[in-house]
User: Which sequence fits this backbone?
């Protein structure tokens, strides 16, 4: 097991190294840079920019150097001192800009993941044990719609319903009085009561796909000999399902985190933009449009880190649950 | 539902038809596919939809960029059979909507002018257009005489007819999906093919590459890539650009499917037999291996289209995808960004319904094809 974890860790490090290269390259690919745009803009308004500041930024980040030099000037401070660089647009270090938003993104994503499983597992169990019943058809229908509705449309619909039915605007993750307050139990509570809308919106498509997979897994397992044997032995139906087929069907569900988590992080990005949540999504969109290189690269990097580490944890969990995988992968 | 009725129909077939008949693989697949009614319905619906959007200018009652300045944010026109006096007309008609100031609330609202009826007519002359890009015409399928104005889905803030824009936008989104798919297909076939056929270190490399791409959050990456499409590109170039962006990440799952299928087929006895009889590698791939998984390819291609369409819609909605003046389902939904506006003019959300319909239809079609792809399997 230790060897397996070590291997996975090494793999994650290599992947993250590649991610940093790809991210940095993509972000820097569009022609021009923020500093140039900014200088041109100020030039146009008739008040030329502060040369010394522009020069400082240019030399600090080596903007006049080739791309690989720029990459090392970005990645080395990041690794050695956690310095993500400087936001041209916001005029502050990137880390102080994204830290809070990243934390909220992780919280919302994790709670969405829990929501997905908490909702999907009971529904799938019900649908599989009541195949072709009215309830099964109902959930299948909801699932089909849930998979087909774009996240942002769902977010919009939620906002409209909240506005029309309850007369409140559901934007934001905090009430105004807690927006900038330091963390406290009251602020956490305030966050919790604001969470349902984003969590439901982010979790819907994931829930739909997990229901689909788990339902068909369970139906497959129900056909197997051991279920018939257990039934013939006289086991109670509930105990039988939970003890055997359900446990068998759970493995693919855990390995499914690998596809679910990137989806949830993607979903939370666009939902945060639509609902105006103080998460990484809106900042990423803004920084990409404004060519605020280090903010965009920092956010993309951190979102990938969260996803890759999450997937690694699910792999380790799976290996711990299922000795076959542990054995196969360490050899 | 269909599965339950299968054994019965098999029994009936035995009684009424000759003892056996010979069907080709293709006929077997079609037969099994037809049993999946929803999939069949989706199949015909999608064909109809592609045909309609290709001839969008003809089916649209107005030009997509034509502004009806007296009808800004007008609600959809009600099609009526019974007039204000309670008389029934067999032929549907509409009333003209006029923008009036409500004296009680002092808000502008649309009121039907019931003094004159405008009957719906086929093949009405209207805004000129070029059908399929080269046939000059000004005939629109449905319309009414002047000064009546037929706006079945209402108008946007600039007074443009939503139905006409919806048809044009669906065309963009439906074909961006196909184009992205075509690019992704080539990539997936190439990488999946070499990794499945040659195996070894090439396989390992491609495997790691797809795993790597799949473990990244798609949308943020798409956003970054979409920003690479230069602002000065023409709509056609943007179109290709966005399709490529979608394809760069979209090919991975296809490559995995192809690899898996190739690996299992490679071990089949008939491939070994072909090798032993001295068939060239190229012939083995094209004559013996490809036919073995064409049906699977079609299934996965069908299921990949909606992902592309959803991606395009999301990117365009964020302003990073298709840009004005080009119209797509995503850009149409940009008009619905402001919650206040949408609450007052809910018809701006109609393009969202269209997205859902298209994606649902493709998903059903894919499901039906998946069941039909292996006609010998009985589930």
Assistant:
């Amino acid at each position: 097991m230790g060897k397996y974890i070590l291997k996975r860790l090494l793999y994650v490090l290599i992947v993250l190294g590649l991610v940093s290269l790809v991210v940095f390259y993509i972000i820097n690919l569009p022609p021009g840079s923020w500093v140039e745009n900014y200088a041109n803009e100020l030039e146009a308004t008739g008040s030329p920019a502060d040369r010394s500041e522009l020069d400082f930024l240019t030399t600090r980040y080596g903007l006049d150097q080739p791309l690989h030099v720029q990459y090392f000037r970005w990645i080395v401070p990041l690794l050695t001192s956690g310095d993500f660089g400087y936001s041209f647009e916001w005029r502050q270090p990137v880390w102080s800009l994204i830290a809070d938003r990243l934390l909220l993104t992780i919280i919302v994503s994790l709670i969405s993941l829990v929501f997905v499983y908490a909702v999907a597992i009971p529904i799938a169990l019900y649908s599989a044990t009541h195949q072709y019943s009215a309830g099964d058809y109902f959930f299948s229908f909801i699932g089909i719609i849930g998979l087909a509705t774009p996240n942002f449309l769902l977010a919009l619909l939620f906002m409209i319903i909240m506005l029309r039915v309850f007369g409140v605007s559901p934007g934001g993750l905090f009430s105004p009085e807690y927006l900038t307050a330091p963390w406290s139990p009251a602020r956490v509570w305030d966050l919790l009561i604001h969470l349902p809308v984003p969590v439901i919106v982010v979790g819907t498509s994931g829930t739909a796909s997990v229901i689909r997979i788990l339902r068909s897994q369970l139906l497959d397992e129900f056909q197997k000999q051991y279920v018939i044997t257990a039934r013939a032995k006289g086991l109670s139906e509930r105990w039988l399902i939970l003890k055997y087929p359900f446990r068998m069907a759970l493995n693919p569900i855990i390995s499914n985190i690998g596809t679910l988590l990137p989806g949830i992080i993607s979903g939370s990005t666009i939902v945060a933009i639509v609902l105006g949540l103080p998460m990484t999504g809106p900042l990423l969109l803004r920084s990409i449009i404004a060519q605020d290189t280090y903010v965009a690269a920092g956010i993309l990097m951190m979102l990938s880190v969260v996803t890759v580490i999450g997937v690694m944890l699910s792999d380790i969990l799976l290996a711990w649950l299922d000795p076959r995988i542990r054995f196969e992968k360490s050899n | 539902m269909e599965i339950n009725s299968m054994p019965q129909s098999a029994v009936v077939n035995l009684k009424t038809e000759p003892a056996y008949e010979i069907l080709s693989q293709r006929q077997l697949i079609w037969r099994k596919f037809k049993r999946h009614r929803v999939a069949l319905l989706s199949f015909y619906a999608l064909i109809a939809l592609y045909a309609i959007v290709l001839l969008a200018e003809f089916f649209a009652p107005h030009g997509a960029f034509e502004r009806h300045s007296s009808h800004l944010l007008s609600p959809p026109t009600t099609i009526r059979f019974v007039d204000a006096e309670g008389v029934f007309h067999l032929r549907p008609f509409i009333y003209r909507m006029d923008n009036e100031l409500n004296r009680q609330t002092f808000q502008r609202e649309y009121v039907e002018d019931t003094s004159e009826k405008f009957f719906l007519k086929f093949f009405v002359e209207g805004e000129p257009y070029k059908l399929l890009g080269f046939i000059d015409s000004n005939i629109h399928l449905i319309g009414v005489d002047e000064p009546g104005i037929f706006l079945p889905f209402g108008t946007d803030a600039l007074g443009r007819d939503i139905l006409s824009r919806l048809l044009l936008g669906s065309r963009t989104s439906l074909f961006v999906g196909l184009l992205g798919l075509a690019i992704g297909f080539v990539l997936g076939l190439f990488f999946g093919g070499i990794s499945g056929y040659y195996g070894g270190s090439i396989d390992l490399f491609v495997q790691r590459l797809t795993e790597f791409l799949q473990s990244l959050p798609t949308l943020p990456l798409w956003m970054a890539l979409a920003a690479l499409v230069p602002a000065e590109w023409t709509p056609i170039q943007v179109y290709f650009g966005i399709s490529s962006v979608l394809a760069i990440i979209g090919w991975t799952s296809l490559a995995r499917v192809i690899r898996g299928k190739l690996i299992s087929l490679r071990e089949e006895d008939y491939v070994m037999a072909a090798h032993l009889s001295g068939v060239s590698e190229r012939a083995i791939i094209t004559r013996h291996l490809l036919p073995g998984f064409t049906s699977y390819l079609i299934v996965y291609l069908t299921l990949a289209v909606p992902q592309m369409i959803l991606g395009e819609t999301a990117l365009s909605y964020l302003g990073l995808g298709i840009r004005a003046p080009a119209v797509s389902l995503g850009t149409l939904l940009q008009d619905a960004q402001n919650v206040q506006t949408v609450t007052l003019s809910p018809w701006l959300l109609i393009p969202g319904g269209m997205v859902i319909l298209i994606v649902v239809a493709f998903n059903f079609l894919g499901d039906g094809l998946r069941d039909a792809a292996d006609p010998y399997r009985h589930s």
